[in-house]
Amino acid sequence: MAAEREPPPLRDGKPTDFEELEDGEDLFTSTVSTLESSPSSPEPASLPAEDISANSNGPKATEVVLDDDREDLFAEATEEVSLDSPEREPILSSEPSPAVTPVTPTTLIAPRIESKSMSAPVIFDRSREEIEEEANGDIFDIEIGVSDPEKVGDGMNAYMAYRVTTKTSLSMFSKSEFSVKRRFSDFLGLHSKLASKYLHVGYIVPPAPEKSIVGMTKVKVGKEDSSSTEFVEKRRAALERYLQRTVKHPTLLQDPDLRQFLESSELPRAVNTQALSGAGILRMVNKAADAVNKMTIKMNESDAWFEEKQQQFENLDQQLRKLHASVEALVCHRKELSANTAAFAKSAAMLGNSEDHTALSRALSQLAEVEEKIDQLHQEQAFADFYMFSELLSDYIRLIAAVKGVFDHRMKCWQKWEDAQITLLKKREAEAKIMVANKPDKIQQAKNEIREWEAKVQQGERDFEQISKTIRKEVGRFEKERVKDFKTVIIKYLESLVQTQQQVFKIEVLMNGRKHFVEKRYSEFHALHKKLKKCIKTPEIPSKHVRNWVPKVLEQRRQGLETYLQAVILENEELPKLFLDFLNVRHLPSLPKAESYGSFDETESEESSKLSHQPVLLFLRDPYVLPAASDFPNVVIEGVLHGIFYPHLQPR
Amino acid sequence: MEVHPEAGKEGKPSCALVELQGDSSLQVEISDAVSERDKVKFTVQTKSCLPHFAQTEFSVVRQHEEFIWLHDAYVENEEYAGLIIPPAPPRPDFEASREKLQKLGEGDSSVTREEFAKMKQELEAEYLAIFKKTVAMHEVFLQRLAAHPTLRRDHNFFVFLEYGQDLSVRGKNRKELLGGFLRNIVKSADEALITGMSGLKEVDDFFEHERTFLLEYHTRIRDACLRADRVMRSHKCLADDYIPISAALSSLGTQEVNQLRTSFLKLAELFERLRKLEGRVASDEDLKLSDMLRYYMRDSQAAKDLLYRRLRALADYENANKALDKARTRNREVRPAESHQQLCCQRFERLSDSAKQELMDFKSRRVSSFRKNLIELAELELKHAKASTLILRNTLVALKGEP
Q1: Is pLDDT of A179 > 80?
Q2: So what does this one do (chain B) (predicted)?
Q3: Is the pLDDT of residue A53 over 80?
């Protein structure tokens, strides 16, 4: 263990960087789904779905679309899309085709911790936004924040209203910044409108947060208690993420309903969103029917890509659910741990109170303090776990459900097409019969019917083709978003973990340092002084005689000793081992070590006890004078910590 | 299930609980312990140069019940009324972890094989830790006896150490257990009666202070111990939670699209390593904090018992005084009453003297072991925090380094 307690290897850089450490708090209050900018390059050739009506160039077009998506996965800077790579199958398989592998090493994700709102430069379909084309390369962004939940009304009719603030530079909005009040059912209404419009043509409509009767009832009935505020905060975050996801979708952003939702101050009241209404029951019946349908339809999948994707999503869904369950357990246990730690802190404090040995009693109450802080940290960590990790997972579980829904729609489409074909076949047979029977008046009618059905078949085929294409595109987009989301969130989550750990670290140092402090007495200082005098030049030590134990005198003496020690350090290049021993630099991470601990890659400790970092030494308030001194987080220490730990976090 | 941990050699976790400054004339250790079904057999090895023993080195096999017997013999011996009898070691309790292991064996099918293996490993480690702790507790008991200047000279202790055969001590049967329970109730009632009803006045400030302190201290430390245990348990739960997370992540990683695969795998690895660290943190907390608290909870109970015995003696003394007064007024049987009063007085004074010494010892012992353990705890926590920060940072760098 001794090795870990060696003084750290010494850095040349000045460790005193007075930047405040990132506060752990912003970490978990900041909304989780801060998504970094999606590729800002103009999408080169994503042909809008409508243009690909002709069957002839269908496969080619798909290829193009896919290429775009792939390239977008990797970089913002890749503008040229190799349209002429015929060997690339239009399959987003897990093995990358050779052309894709040289991933452009751009920093796809620059994690930002502080941002509360998101910026999502949105890619536009060229054909749709012809006007925007000139402004090639510009970043159009739209930021949406959901904030200020407030309770409106009373009793069971009460509801929470949220403020939806939009900041944008898009020309389609009349103002660049505006905000509206919306309630939860409005969000649901928006979702159902969008879903009814886009789902059946194969767009993945981001799912709205789930209704929770229990939670809402609590909010409605209950007063201000922690569980209901937690619920509201959770819902707020979920709504924000929902809106952000929605506006990031290039097609959905164009939707008038969405625009109305964001802009107009009055919104028609969304109906049929209540969980217990007739419509709700209807929905449930529909869902059940769909499920039955799904079981009965046996579609012989013609496209390997779809098959693979479907399989993949199925697996993904399962895995994510499992992971989600484990993370929930983790969160739960962490909360438990935090509660237990708090309880322990209390009883440690009590124990400290009843302990009659003064030093031990103080140590115990410090332990209690530390435990309290650790409890705080655990709590924060639990929040971080929940808001970052768990919520991400649950969001994606819902998103995957949406993707599955899209697949189902494709299947339905296919079924329609198939039905049409069968009917056409029947009609043709009937016509043949009529021809045989030679009934001219009916022939005309039959021909008409056949034509009609042929058209229908074609329509169905087109529909199917189109939905397939859209789905492909959408899935590609979805994957892209997913990869980015996951990475960002994971990194952010890890960063939060690091921060928590570091805080635990700091606090532990505090505990040890303080503990040690209790044991140093003035006489020891004096003894040190005598010994030091023999080997190095020393400044004047404060006077030995103190008449009475009044706090003021003690405080003076404390200051005197502090300056004394600092002077010793400053005046002597080589510090004698004796001195370091006194400060316990080598044996125990007592406080002076707190300034210099740090780098983990410390290897061997040289025998030389020269301090090559700038000597920083400070005393906390003397525990004898003010036992309850608690202002440990000191700018110097934080700065040093920052210097030692965060060089890599500094703006590059 | 058979376990042969080299209990004496590696890890004597609880030796840190008390600092013993005994000389080398009598050294006791438990060199080995074997768990057979529901019994644990401890091999007690003694090195001594005391003339009482025939040899200088010998060892015997003892069971938990025999330790209890030894403890009871000390408690019941009137001679030691003025001393803090070291608390008896707790019963070896492997039921909980055995049960868990069994449950895991039956286990639901949702756990993958790797998870199962990991959980089993974890449980086995836990079992071993409990086992070691039990052994250490027994050892500490013997060592404290051996280090005490008075207690080490007890005949029963010699027998316990030397007698080669089984002591044929049976465990307490139900009647005795009930009797002990009743005795405890009577004792606490008596204590309340002495202090509350008869309004006995404490003659010595020192003891008055110690009494209030110990009473309060005992309840507090019991509370703290309970809480610390709970903290430790939830910490362990937390560590266990990392197992399925890590497993899910790695399986997610294997079937994930390319860009995420490495991230997921790295993350899985990270969680795996974090789990180990968390587990270590939990066990260190257990070792340094809750074990210490638990030991001192029992020790303070022993001290409380000592105070009770002293109080009882005081009450006897007062009663004897009264009886003497009565006898004198009636002028009947003055002599026996006098001698009885003398006896009580002597006994009380002897008790007070030794109790004072013992309580001082208790205090210094407590302070030094608290200090030692707390410092060690802080160091270990620091170390773990450092390690986990390192792991996290490395992973972060690796993740960021990826395109």
Answers
A1: no
A2: Involved in several stages of intracellular trafficking.
A3: no
CA B245 – CA A324 distance, rounded (Å)? 8
Cβ-nearest to A336 among B234, B389, B397: B234
User: In terms of DSSP bridges, do strands A142-152 and B26-36 run parallel, antiparallel, or are they unpaired?
Assistant: unpaired
Q: What is the pLDDT of residue A516?
A: 39
Helices (H), A11-57: 24-29
Provide, as residue numbers in chain B, all residues whose Cβ is less than 8 Å from the Cβ of A509.
382
A515 lies within 8 A of chain B by CB: yes
Residues of chain A positioned with their CB less than 8 A from the CB of B112 = none
Kindly state the helix (H) or strand (E) to which residue A378 belongs, with its residue range.
helix A358-384
B132 or A147, which is more confident:
B132
Q: What's the angle, vertex CA A484, arms to CA A478 and CA A487, rounded to 5?
A: 135
A95 contact residues in B (CB cutoff 8 A) = 258
For tokens 């990826």, the residue is B402
The encoded tokens of residue B178 equal: 């009930």
Whole-number Å distance between alpha carbons of B389 and B403: 23
pLDDT at A170: 66
- DSSP string across B91-153: PP--HHHHHHHHHHHH--TTS-HHHHHHHHHHHHHHHHHHHHHHHHHHHHHHHHHHHSTTGGG
Q: Which of B156, B119, B160 shows the shortest CA–CA distance to B30?
A: B160
What ipTM was reported for this prediction? 0.76
Which amino acid is residue A206, in one-letter code? P
A325, A334, A479 member nearest B257 (Cβ): A479
| Interface membership of A616 toward B (CB under 8 Å) | no
Within 10 angstroms of residue B179's Cβ, the number of other Cβ atoms is: 12
CA-CA-CA-CA dihedral for B103, B107, B108, B111, to nearest 10: 120
Interface mutation target, options A308, A354, A392, A500, chain B, most CBs of B under 10 Å: A354
**Residue of chain B whose Cα is closest to the Cα of A356:** B213
Beta bridge partners of A147: A163
Contact B399 A487 (CB under 8 A): yes
Alpha-carbon distance A412 to A146, whole Å? 36
Distances (CA, A) of B111 to A323, B123, B245, B248: 13, 15, 12, 10
Q: Between chains, do A105 and B403 touch, taking CB under 8 Å as contact?
A: yes
HSE-CB at B398 with a 13 A cutoff on CA atoms is: 15
Q: Dihedral sign, CA of A589, A592, A598, A603?
A: negative
Find the helix or strand (DSSP H, E) in which A511 lies.
Answer: helix A440-519
- Token pair listed for A252: 């959905």
- Compute CA distances B271 → A385, A573, B99, B347, B388, whole Å: 13, 45, 27, 63, 10
CA dihedral A89, A93, A94, A96 (to 10 degrees): 20
Q: Could you tell me the strand order of the sheet in which B39-48 lies? A: B26-36, B39-48, B57-63
DSSP class of A254: T
* Nearest beta carbon to residue A512 from set B213, B366, B375: B375
Query: Residue A303 in contact with residue A468, Cβ under 8 Å?
Result: yes
Residue boundaries of the structural domains of chain B: 174-201, 205-402
For B250-376, list the strands marked E by DSSP: none
Q: Is A54's pLDDT higher than 50?
A: no
pTM comes to: 0.61
Q: Number of Cβ pairs closer than 8 Å across A and B?
A: 177
Looking only at the bridges linking them, the beta strands covering B57-63 and B39-48 are antiparallel
A37's tokens: 């900018």
Asked whether the beta carbons of A423 and A430 are under 8 A apart, the reply is: no
Instruction: Give chain A's mean pLDDT.
Output: 58
- Secondary structure of residue A79 in the 3-state scheme: coil
Amino acid at B105: G
Residue A569, CA distances (Å) to A119, A333, A564, A576, A617 in order = 50, 47, 9, 10, 9
Q: What is the topology classification, in CATH, of domain B205-402?
A: Substrate Binding Domain Of Dnak; Chain:A; Domain 2 (1.20.1270)
